[in-house]
Design a protein that fits this description.
alpha+beta; four-stranded antiparallel sheet; 2 helices; 4 strands
């Protein structure tokens, strides 16, 4: 089960951010991570089977302060199934009356001219 974890960490400088990212990268099951929010004080971790408590404990040991903000399941987006198009209904052909033909029967015993 893939999950998304948001952890608020005190990261005052770039060095502490890189240290936090290195700790998260070493954790088992992490597939992606990033620094979020305007203050750049939150780590967003996405992974499968990540031990959240162990991760927060490691961050607290190295950086001092870390709190879990959010843990939620990441649902995979399924591609929308396309419904087969319904066949287009064609209007019936317009009806036209058959042309009339004049048949002239010739009497073969008499010439036609």
């Amino acid at each position: 089960m893939k999950q998304k974890i948001v952890i608020q960490v005190t990261m005052s400088c770039e060095k502490s951010r890189s240290k936090a990212m290195a700790l998260v990268a070493k954790a088992d099951g992490v597939s992606s991570m990033g620094v979020t929010s305007d203050g750049k004080d939150r780590l967003e971790v996405v992974g499968d089977g990540v031990d959240t408590i162990c991760l927060v404990r490691c961050l607290r040991k190295k950086l001092g302060h870390a709190d879990i903000v959010l843990v939620e399941e990441v649902k995979e987006k399924k591609p929308e199934e396309k419904k087969p198009e319904e066949p287009k209904v064609m209007p019936p052909p317009s009806y036209c009356y058959p042309g009339y033909y004049y048949y002239h029967h010739h009497n073969l015993s008499q010439p036609w001219w």
